[in-house]
Amino acid sequence: MNARQETGGTVGHMPPQEPRRVVDIIEATALGTVTCDDINELVNAVTDGDADDAQVGAWLMAVKAFGLGGEQAAALCAAMAASGEQLTWEGVTVDKHSTGGVGDATSLVIAPVLACLGLGVPMLSGRSLGHTGGTLDKLEAINGYRCDLSADELRRQLDTVGCFISGATETLAPADARLYQIRDRTATVASLPLIAASIVSKKLAAGAGALVLDVKWGEAAFLPERDDARLLAETMVALCQANNVPAAAALTCMDEPLGQAVGNAAEVHEALGILSGDGDRRMRELCIQLCIEAARLAGLPAAIEQVVGVLDDGTARAKFDEMAHAQGAHLPLDIAAPVATRDVHAAQSGKMRWSALRVAHAGATLGACRADAHSVVDASASIWLHVGDGGHDVRFGDVIATVGGNNEDAVEHASALLADALVESDDTTPAAVDEWVRP
Ligand code: URA
Q: Going by CA atoms, what residue is nearest to atom 7 of ligand 1?
């Protein structure tokens, strides 16, 4: 019984509270007096269409200009998550999210590894955005792989295989879809509370029990400054915490591509290499650290030996095949092969490193990602980087990369861009993880 009922219970006779008008919520946001109830009201109005585009744009600008308090940001995130279907899973589940990197196919490794440890991994991923690749585009380089599983199929697969990587449905966090569209048109994308609530609300709606985040900084990251990336990481971890989802975030550098492969088909091959105990040292290390943290958050303080064990003994690779097969892929896996390939030679000698941003632009030319909404993705797009780590000694004429794709002209153009993507640098290879942000 609550206090009001104990004192005679006037609850039933109180006049219903008038919902605040959207225009008042906009003003309260600009004045810093907006309440969590106001935020719920606003998100309902966004979802139902009661707030028009001009009002939503004005509210977004108020948030961008004046910020949101911690409680209000958590309320925004929860209301966005609750604006559509909310998935729930049996057993202990965990998920991983990255803010987007070049050559970052870690999701393809992490989902099966965590499933091998006995955790459920309901991973709903996205397609490429801007110059970074998308997990679903990479997986579709595997012949037959389906990224459009229905809710029933997702549930069955989590029960039987222990993991899936599929696309989110339109019924998940619809408020985010509308807010994001309007942010794009009103210069309000770059707002920490809006970015954090957008990312975390989709993860809450997808129902993961714990979340490990990989927040990129550096020249090819969407937040290049490390301090900004740290703030985003702290904000997202706090939103998860406020919504009872244990979370932690790794800050990782995106000045150089991750691993030695960029492009859909090449990144699948690279992930399979790591799943088989081989592969690029830094990418393997990042996968291992993210897995250990995810397992810890899920209440399974996995020893590093367990994670390394399933990578090195073939168990994780077999789990990936099982997942891919359950999602329609033929076994043995058939990965899109480029029609045209070309070697790229060093144009100068010296200590060099790859510029992640320039490599990404070469990848976009090949169709490894979507430069804009009309771009066509090439499943076979592949860039293999033969010289790797920062401060690498390169001699004029060395073969520094191999480029592949389904279009000769694009391969030639990408090769020219790649020759300029190796830049002079004495820097050493970045660490796999710079720092952890924990609650
Ligand atoms: N990714 C999202 O899902 N939302 C943002 O606002 C930015 C990146």
A: 195
